[in-house]
Amino acid sequence: MRADARRNRARVLEAAEAVFAAEGTSASTEEIARQAGVGIGTVFRHFPTKQALLEAILADRLARLTEEARSLSASPDPGAALLALFTRMVEQSAAKKTYVDALANAGLDAMSAMSQIGQQARQALGVLLARAQQAGAIRDGIGVTELIALVVGASRAAEHSGWDQDVQARILQVIFDGLRP
Amino acid sequence: MRADARRNRARVLEAAEAVFAAEGTSASTEEIARQAGVGIGTVFRHFPTKQALLEAILADRLARLTEEARSLSASPDPGAALLALFTRMVEQSAAKKTYVDALANAGLDAMSAMSQIGQQARQALGVLLARAQQAGAIRDGIGVTELIALVVGASRAAEHSGWDQDVQARILQVIFDGLRP
């Protein structure tokens, strides 16, 4: 892909995330093109369907998570870095759920569609977790499976409490204290 | 309601739970009547629609939870009793989710339909939690809102890990350790 095409694609993705967050995933492609400052033909060239756009946003988020986990693995305090990333994943879960639900409503299993990029994110989180355990910040005996399940569970708990910031902070405190050695 | 009508109603509920668990909520009313040992007319007299039956099962489960929480409040070790109840709620959440989803698919919000009985369960759990906190077994600063959100979150975490018993045990251990003072 040429550099300007790559830039346009990234701008469409960024605009689509903002428009979907504001108006829901039924927002029009016209609005996305307008906010991205490109023609509607450019949107359709990169993403022929709404599904393709939703999948690309999810893949993009997972790729960013992978990068973030990889760079945090080199942090001098991998335990604190892991818990900060855990918090961000919970905070971003509402938006992520919107995309996953929209794809599910279209009959698509978002997670299996991005199994390869999901595996990379899982692996990067596993490395960060291992570093945090080696640093003595996180208890032994839990693996990346438990970690991801706890992120998913904490996200659901936060959703259940209506995204109340105080409740969410107390829930995360319980889980983080439980993750200590 | 006369005593034999009450007994029949209870038998239909019990049979319906067993049949739905085995065959899903699309199971036939005939099968439920057969397993309950009553005529199909008896099922329809107590539960005119499938929705009424699903709501009654959920209400029944919530009522049992309320009773259990109330009786556990008198336990000599309310902390251990609370965590054991937490574990049972997570274990039963898969079945509960089936009913809630079936009602949601019928356009009904199960939880608002049973708000009164839900409030009683919430209150009973709150009393048990307060006893456990007074006994020094559970940290201060969390309330029944956080407790229920954590049960919901742990249930989702267990579901996400495919109800793997080992993963579920490790997830609960993290949360229970985090709930300690």
Polypeptide structure, described:
Two copies of one chain form a homodimer. By secondary structure, the first copy, chain A, is mainly α. Chain A folds into two domains: 48 residues, Homeodomain-like (Arc Repressor Mutant, subunit A); 131 residues, Tetracycline Repressor, domain 2, CATH 1.10.357. Helices cover 78% and strands 0% of the residues of chain A. The interface between A and B is medium-sized, with 29 and 29 residues.
Structural class by helix and strand composition of chain A: mainly alpha
Count of helical segments of chain A?
10
User: What's the gyration radius of chain A in Å?
Assistant: 18 Å
CATH superfamily of the largest domain in chain A: Tetracycline Repressor, domain 2
The portion of residues forming beta strands of chain A comes to under 5%
pLDDT < 50 stretches of chain A: none
Mean pLDDT of chain A: 92
- Please report the total strand number of chain A as a whole number: 0
CATH class of the largest domain in chain A: Mainly Alpha
List the helices and strands of chain A in order.
Answer: HHHHHHHHHH
Q: Major sheet of chain A: size, sense and barrel closure?
A: none
The multimeric state of the shown protein is homodimer
Largest chain-chain contact? Answer: A-B, 29 and 29 residues
The first-to-last residue Cα distance of chain A is: 48 Å
Give the SSE layout.
The structure is a homodimer of 181-residue chains.
Chain A (H helix, E strand, L loop, with lengths): L2 H21 L5 H8 L3 H7 L3 H23 L5 H14 L1 H13 L4 H4 L1 H20 L9 H17 L4 H15 L2
